[in-house]
Fold:
Amino acid sequence: MNIPRRNILKYSYISAVFASLAGFSKLVFAEWPTIAFDQTEYDKALADVTGGETMQEGNITIDAPEIASNGATVPITISTDLDDVKSIDVLVVNNPRPYIATFFINDLIESSVSLRVKMRETSNVVAVVKTGSGLYTAKTPVKVTAGGC
Amino acid sequence: MSKKVKIRASLKDDVTTVKALMTHPMETGARKDKETGELVPAYFIQEVVVTHNDTVVMDAYWGTGVSKNPYLSFKMKGGADGDTISLTWKDNLGESGSGETKIKAK
Structure:
């Protein structure tokens, strides 16, 4: 195999970064859930995220604009006063890939996250909160006037 | 592309608010290049970790639905003026970026 000299340097740099992240990831991440993120149907994505467990309506607040003029960047804040929160999952029902993100929550932080999401069209934004005593969910509609996917 | 993360942490009433802005195109893999008509390959942040001094306080998995140049904010219990807050991300191509700040008491 004939790899130009400068590429060897490049490859070794990339491997070094991977190696450092691999050690790092073991502490923090199980594994990025490829299948769930690749789902194109909301029901399947939700089933992957919840593991098929039933959910209750919970004390979850989703702050999102009623009308989003730019679907490329819709600000949302999800917060909850439920106890023993493990994670907050975010889904947008009508997106080409509905599963947006999971945030892992622990005792060191409050159960609240803010982010910006892409929305293709008018849709419900769904939050799933996993706690030590089961799954909770809430949703809120956002009207999108110019899609951003 | 700048891999530097803009990050701020402010302490008030025993709660530290962390706000971070990353620079990343967050390509979904479904967008077509306007000139060539070809699909732009997926290129997006997958994992984000935030630490307080050396303790992980928040970590997240992201998909392609997070907006370009992602913003993240959350509130941490406690924290002290001068403590270090840092954020590291890793994308689907194995690249990473990070940023660090000191908590400022208000």
Notes: The two ends of chain B are 33 Å apart (CA to CA).
